[in-house]
């Protein structure tokens, strides 16, 4: 719940900054004020509670997340290292493996990275570095390296298995299940994949409902509210929203957090535009709820 509150705080902080910018119409300002009050009530968060602040603001997080992940173009002319380069890259990989056995994971990353510089078309090097990243707690780096390994060799079962481990460590158990299942398709007799799949499925079942931890928000009441449904209908008929939802769904498999952040940025101005038409009545309802 703490992470949820931190995210809510970051969103509220972002909305406050938009208010302070002074570039909004009076209707837009009123809409943002209503949104801030409702978010503070729903998540029991106050902008004054600085303990919930994180190192980066929401725009900074989005800017980092939206940086394009480098991809391996498997359709391009393949890079062909010389025999000497292949031998040197393998030597560096072996050095990295030795550091892994010694639990010197930082040096292992360095050796695998050097091997990748020499031969960037070897999926094993990325997959091994992903394992080292996971040991260091850099699960996002592990996910990225597994993506690159899979891009080079879509039938590399170990890359799917390690992707599942990294995602599970990020509490993305639904996504982890998908990758464990793919790993098992490629290596049906692997007991480790079977065990990890069972654990991820159990964690997925234990995960709270999406409505849990929302400060008692009455979802059924919202859905039965004609004003809310009218606003939702207006939003969903907006081409920007349709494009955003399509993009989020297409990218949700591997990078759900990045897709969510991108969606928030697109959704915010559209929501503000639609809600401004009925901000006064929503403002009154929100204030009555806060006072009660």
TrEMBL record:
Purpose of the protein: Co-chaperone that binds misfolded and hydrophobic patches-containing client proteins in the cytosol. Mediates their targeting to the endoplasmic reticulum but also regulates their sorting to the proteasome when targeting fails. Functions in tail-anchored/type II transmembrane proteins membrane insertion constituting with ASNA1 and the BAG6 complex a targeting module. Functions upstream of the BAG6 complex and ASNA1, binding more rapidly the transmembrane domain of newly synthesized proteins.
Segment forming the signal sequence: none
Gene3D superfamilies per record: Immunoglobulin FC, subunit C, Tetratricopeptide repeat domain
Q: Which GO terms describe its biological process?
A: post-translational protein targeting to endoplasmic reticulum membrane
Q: Which Pfam families match?
A: SGTA_dimer, TPR_1, TPR_11
Q: Where are the TPR repeats?
A: 89-122, 123-156, 157-190
**Protein source organism:** Anguilla anguilla (European freshwater eel)
Similarity comment: family membership: Belongs to the SGT family.
Query: Could you name the Gene Ontology cellular component terms for this entry?
Result: membrane; nucleus; TRC complex
Assembly and partners are described as:
Homodimer. Homooligomer. Interacts with DNAJC5 and DNAJC5B. Interacts (via TPR repeats) with HSP90AA1. Interacts (via Gln-rich region) with SLC2A1. Interacts with HSP90AB1. Interacts (via TPR repeats) with HSPA8/Hsc70; the interaction is direct. Interacts with BAG6 (via ubiquitin-like domain); interaction prevents interaction between BAG6 and RNF126. Forms a multiprotein complex, at least composed of DNAJB12, DNAJB14, HSPA8/Hsc70 and SGTA; interaction with DNAJB14 and HSPA8/Hsc70 is direct.
**Classification via InterPro entries:** SGT (IPR047150), SGTA_dimer (IPR032374), TPR-like_helical_dom_sf (IPR011990), TPR_rpt (IPR019734)
Per UniProt, the keywords (alphabetical) are: Acetylation, Chaperone, Cytoplasm, Nucleus, Phosphoprotein, Repeat, TPR repeat
Q: Where is this gene product found? A: Cytoplasm; Nucleus
Q: Mind telling me which SMART domains this protein's record contains?
A: TPR
The record's PANTHER family line, in alphabetical order, gives: LD24721P, SMALL GLUTAMINE-RICH TETRATRICOPEPTIDE REPEAT-CONTAINING PROTEIN ALPHA
Query: What is the name of this protein?
Result: Small glutamine-rich tetratricopeptide repeat-containing protein alpha
- Its Gene Ontology molecular function terms? identical protein binding; molecular adaptor activity
| Domain SGTA homodimerisation: from-to ranges | 4-63
């Amino acid at each position: 719940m703490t992470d949820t509150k931190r995210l809510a705080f970051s969103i509220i902080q972002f909305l406050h900054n938009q208010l302070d910018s002074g570039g909004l119409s009076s209707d837009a300002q009123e809409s943002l004020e209503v949104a801030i009050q409702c978010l503070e009530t729903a998540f029991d968060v106050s902008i004054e509670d600085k303990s919930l602040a994180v190192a980066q603001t929401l725009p900074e997080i989005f800017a980092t997340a939206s940086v394009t992940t480098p991809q391996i173009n498997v359709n391009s002319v393949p890079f062909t290292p010389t025999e000497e380069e292949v031998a040197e890259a393998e030597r560096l990989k072996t050095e990295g493996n030795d550091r892994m056995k010694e639990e010197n994971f930082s040096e292992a990353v360095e050796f695998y990275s050097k091997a990748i510089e020499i031969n960037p078309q070897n999926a094993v090097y990325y997959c091994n570095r992903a394992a080292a990243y996971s040991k260091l707690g850099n699960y996002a780096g592990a996910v990225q390296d597994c993506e690159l390994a899979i891009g080079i060799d879509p039938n590399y079962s170990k890359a799917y298995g390690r992707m599942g481990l990294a995602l599970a460590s990020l509490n993305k158990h639904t996504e982890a299940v998908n990758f464990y299942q793919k790993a098992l398709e490629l290596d049906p007799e692997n007991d480790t994949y079977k065990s990890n799949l069972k654990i991820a499925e159990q964690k997925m079942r234990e995960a709270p409902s999406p409505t849990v931890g929302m400060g008692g928000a009455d979802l059924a009441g919202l859905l039965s509210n004609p004003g809310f449904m009218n606003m939702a209908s207006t939003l969903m008929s907006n081409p920007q929203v349709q494009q955003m939802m399509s993009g989020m769904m297409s990218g949700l498999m591997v990078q759900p957090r990045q897709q969510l952040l991108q969606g928030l940025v697109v959704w915010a101005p559209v929501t503000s535009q639609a809600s401004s038409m009925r901000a006064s009545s929503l403002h009154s309802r929100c204030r009555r709820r806060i006072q009660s």
